[in-house]
């Protein structure tokens, strides 16, 4: 376990970058050299300015802010994907010899980073998801050529401040995005439909939402606390010839396995289109 991190910069500390930054601060892990964050506007920079150990820079007030941030050991790139190549060209001359560049920009490949930063720069590509904002992310992490075990461990520790980390080869980043990246939306959709079903049974909307949302939250907490396989927990709720068994039969009759496979296949196809610029 890494006990401390070197200096960290978040270039483009928007929703995701800001969530990881706040998770890092909340973790209490020492950051030698401090944390630097850049955002385009003063209003956005002000949201992070009060965090302990954070230097928050507004580019509209300090145009060379990205160059300043690029002097950190770990440089997290969180700008919009279309902006990444120009940003890399901007910061490349300011990077330290031992810099570790980490992408949280969806769809931008390690090859793009290598082409714009030059040879010899350690780069990792990550895919966190939105539960990072509550410290429960799943982050896929793919290391580029030449990344050392020490560098990978530092970046892994950074993302562990907001949840769990899975090391994957780069070709698995897009498939991972269809599960954990898009996954929260699938869960929210299921809760929406469960709520509608409750309303259809005569419950008021507030009651229906309470039942649906807290059932999902309670079930996932039980799953986590028990350490059991979800199929086993399902069996324990499903009494033979009972009401749950009848409902499960209907759901399984809808061939949910094929439905989820098709949904994630569609997401993967779109991820590959986006990577190709379509």
Automatic annotation (TrEMBL):
Every Pyrroline-5-carboxylate reductase catalytic N-terminal domain range: 8-107
Leader peptide range in chain numbering: none
UniProt organism field: Microbacterium capsulatum
Keywords, comma-separated and alphabetical: Amino-acid biosynthesis, Cytoplasm, NADP, Oxidoreductase, Proline biosynthesis
Cellular localisation: Cytoplasm
Identification of the protein by name: Pyrroline-5-carboxylate reductase
Domain Pyrroline-5-carboxylate reductase dimerisation: 170-274
Catalytic activity: L-proline + NAD(+) = (S)-1-pyrroline-5-carboxylate + NADH + 2 H(+); L-proline + NADP(+) = (S)-1-pyrroline-5-carboxylate + NADPH + 2 H(+)
MF GO annotations: pyrroline-5-carboxylate reductase activity
Biological pathway: Amino-acid biosynthesis; L-proline biosynthesis; L-proline from L-glutamate 5-semialdehyde: step 1/1
Highest taxon above the source species: Bacteria
Record function comment: Catalyzes the reduction of 1-pyrroline-5-carboxylate (PCA) to L-proline.
């Amino acid at each position: 376990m890494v006990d401390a991190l070197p200096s960290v910069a978040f270039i483009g500390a928007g929703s995701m970058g800001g969530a990881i930054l706040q998770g890092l601060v909340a973790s209490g892990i020492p950051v030698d050299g401090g944390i630097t964050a850049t955002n385009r506007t003063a209003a956005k920079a002000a949201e992070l300015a009060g965090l302990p150990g954070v230097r928050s820079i507004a580019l509209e007030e300090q145009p060379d802010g990205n160059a300043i941030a690029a002097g950190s050991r770990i440089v997290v790139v969180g700008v919009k994907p279309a902006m990444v190549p120009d940003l890399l060209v901007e910061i490349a001359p300011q990077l330290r010899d031992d810099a570790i560049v980490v992408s949280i920009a969806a769809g931008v490949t390690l090859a793009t980073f290598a082409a714009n930063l030059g040879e010899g720069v350690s780069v990792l590509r990550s895919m966190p998801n939105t539960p990072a904002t509550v410290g429960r992310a799943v982050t896929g992490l793919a290391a580029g050529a030449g990344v050392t075990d020490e560098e990978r461990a530092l970046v892994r520790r950074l993302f562990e401040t907001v949840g769990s980390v899975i090391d994957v080869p780069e070709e698995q980043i897009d498939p991972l995005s269809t599960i954990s990246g898009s996954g929260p939306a699938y869960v929210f959709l299921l809760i929406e439909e469960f709520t509608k079903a409750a309303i259809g049974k005569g419950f008021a909307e507030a009651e229906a939402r309470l039942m649906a949302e807290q059932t999902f939250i309670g079930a996932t907490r039980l799953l986590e606390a028990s350490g059991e396989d979800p199929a086993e927990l399902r069996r324990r709720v499903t009494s033979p010839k009972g009401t749950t068994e009848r409902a499960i039969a209907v759901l399984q009759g809808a061939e949910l396995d094929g439905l989820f496979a098709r949904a994630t296949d569609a997401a993967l196809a779109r991820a590959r289109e986006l990577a190709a610029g379509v």
